[in-house]
Amino acid sequence: MEATPVPLAARAAHLRSSAIRDLLALTQRPGVISLAGGLPAPDAFPVERIAAVTARLLRSAPEALLQYSTTEGHPGLRAWIAERATTQRARPVGADDVLVTHGSQQALDLLAKVLVDPGATVAIDEPGYVGAIQALSLFEPDFLPVPVDRDGMRVDVLAERLEAGARPRLLYTVVNFQNPTGATMSQARRARLAQLAEHYGFLVVEDDPYGALRFAGEPVASVARWSDLVVSLGTFSKLVAPGLRIGWMVVPAWLRPVLVRAKQGADLHTSSWGQAVLAEVVAERAWLADHTEALVRLYGTRMRALADALTGELGEGVGFERPDGGMFLWARIPGVDTTALLAAAVERGVAFVPGAAFFAGPGDPGALRLSYSVATPETLHEGARRLARALADRGTSPP
Fold it and tell me: Which of 3, 52, 303, 305 has the fewest Cβ atoms surrounding its Cβ within 10 A?
């Protein structure tokens, strides 16, 4: 780290830059098709509904939008979240169990602040969500990466490491349509994970930003169905719009007071404006059902378009499994270093995220994450074509 006029805290040395955010400058170059960022489709934002609700609330209840509010969050929004959590957990969840946060990223930061000391063991998906690795790294944990396959985190591998003496304070996993692999943790693994948490005394943080975006298969119950040692994270970023920056966590009673105090120290409360507007936007069940169905159709169509294009353009030169939902397709090109391939791909006008970005340690050099969320089927096909050309440029033509 460069010298500074005033010394920085020692923890600043552990701040990692997000590989995905660093890619944004490349993807904004004219003519580049970005399959990199995990951005929701802007053509699906409910602009008119948000505008109408905002205008109505500013006329009828301006104080609800413009005044300070409680740290825990908007009562109506917390009740809405609690109702959904009750369904996912198959047992009652009250509004008092919910803490509204500035995106689910803040929830992860707050949890790390109150639970993770330097040197504490934190178990994470491998490969896993870059934002989680970035947020947790600041608190200087010892990461315990646990491999992910098509059924989510390998809980059997976790069990072996626990039996061998590993003692995580916290375990973080994306349970539905995982970022980056698109995998969904099976029900059997969720139940087993809950058993392990109870036996060894660690907290499971299950993140579910993509769960509503399911276009195949059946929903799977929350890990919290089988244990109280679980915090469930959620967000409105993928369901409504990320610019509102509204997320939440459902937390056990013993942990809630310290998290509320930590949030008070961070920001006092999440945006009154965003919470009040969202509470009105999602309150109409018929509208929300139609909106969610439209999102599922949109992302399902785009996933199939990208998968078909990759098969058509690269054939057996690329391996992947079609996800049942979410925004990402995890692929592997054997014998190719995708970090080195990226430069050639950008020259050909297409960008992706090399798989190495999603590992706390050394990653799989042949892996890459592709997002299909913002591009039309035609654009996705062209992106696959350009990726094939980039491989040819490096002397690695697909079969």
Answer: 3
